[in-house]
Amino acid sequence: MSETKVIDACNTYCPGPLMELITYMKQAEVGDTLELLSTDQGTASDVPEWVNKIGHEMVSSEKIGKIWHIKVRKAK
Amino acid sequence: MRILIVGGGTGGTIIANNLARRLATEIRKHKASITMLSASDRHMYQPGLLYVAFGQMMPDELYRDQASLLETTIDFHVDPVEEFNLDDNRVKTKNGTVYNYDVLVIATGSRIMPRKIPGLEEGSETFYTEESAVSMFKSLRNFEGGKVAIVVGVPHKCPIAPVEITFALHDYFKERGIRDKVEIKYHYPINRIHSIENVAIWAKPQFDEMGIEYETLFNVEEVDVENKIVKSMEGSEYNYDLLISIPEHHGEEVIEKNKLGVDGWIPTDRHQLTMEGHDNVYVVGDTTNLPVSKTGSAAHFEAEIIAENIASIIKIGIPVSEYDGKVYCFIEAGRDKATYANFNYLNPPDLKPANKSMHWFKMSYNQMYWTSVRGLL
What we know:
CATH superfamily of chain A: TusA-like domain
CATH architecture of the largest domain in chain B: 3-Layer(bba) Sandwich
Largest sheet of chain A: 4 strands, mixed
Number of strands of chain A: 4
Oligomer: heterodimer
Helix content of chain B: 25-40%
Shape of chain B: globular
Number of helices of chain A: 2
Strand order of the largest sheet of chain B: 5-2-1-9-20-19
CATH architecture of chain A: 2-Layer Sandwich
Radius of gyration of chain A: 11 Å
Structural class of chain A: alpha+beta
Helix content of chain A: 25-40%
CATH superfamily of the largest domain in chain B: FAD/NAD(P)-binding domain
Strand order of the largest sheet of chain A: 1-2-4-3
CATH class of the largest domain in chain B: Alpha Beta
CATH class of chain A: Alpha Beta
Distance between the termini of chain B: 27 Å
Strand content of chain B: 25-35%
Radius of gyration of chain B: 21 Å
CATH topology of chain A: Translation Initiation Factor IF3
């Protein structure tokens, strides 16, 4: 099982959390899990919408304190 | 203290000049030295490429001799670095010269990677190099009508460029009197038309008013050049007559070859701007992996922090400043009006309506840049 790569996209407006996730998803191998950290409320809905449309796998999404922790597995 | 700056773009040049002034006494007393190694003897004002793509600037207007931009105390060599040996504080250049340093600044920038997408290089026009910007203008001049598609790779330099190029296309075809014969469709990777929410909110009604179509969640997977179809990873596709691309970017090849960062982006502390694991190595501008815009503006503000800290470390032993994520971007909203986005890690931009004054300020800044990069502005 590969290690979870953590992407710290807290407190950033440009390029923003979903753009960061797309960047790192391109670098990942199929089966890798990425954990996106974000303080942007919109990320909680933006990421699942993209993940579902493109066909990756949502692993989990939870807010701990002020930070969203969203785990996604690269499926293709 | 031997300061070595690798890269002569916006970030590297501002750091070098800023340090040369802050450390004038130390340099005169031979207690500090500044060396710059660059791949080119010329310095390009990269934002000008957008104007070249629309015939509003000539390529030769974008360049100055790099040596003419530098303080005379800076030891400048056109000799790109090929090997970084960070554990031993030295680099080796293409000519085979070894440079030892006490402080290293990596400012090598980024490059477009259209070849990452099958068909994109041969099937689209872009404007991120002199050659491609001229080619794009020639294509626009020859275009008499049809479907124009704008597609955006991730990550890319100048996040404002996708909306700027779209507004510019609208105005260009309108001025030629063929706007009614042109369908413009903008495609964007995430689920709104710009990564900055306030820019998306600002741009959307203008797209609607201009009759610009848009599709979000569109990440380019492939271009079928023969049939002129661009396809997305999300499963949609679009038939085009002219494809304008903002290609995915990577850091420079030398960074990847030396394994300093995946895809050429160096892991960097977001406040101190030091390379992770190397406190005497600073990273500036596009070269970082920071979640900030890859723009000359970000490089400029980062460069000021880095220069201030290197100088203070030499003078009092500790850094004095932290980068707060500041970026200031002009946004051209067509050929005769503009606005701006000013933001940092904690505060989003608050966009004002575009106006002619801001456009002329931007046109002035296109010349003022040469003062800015000398560290005078």
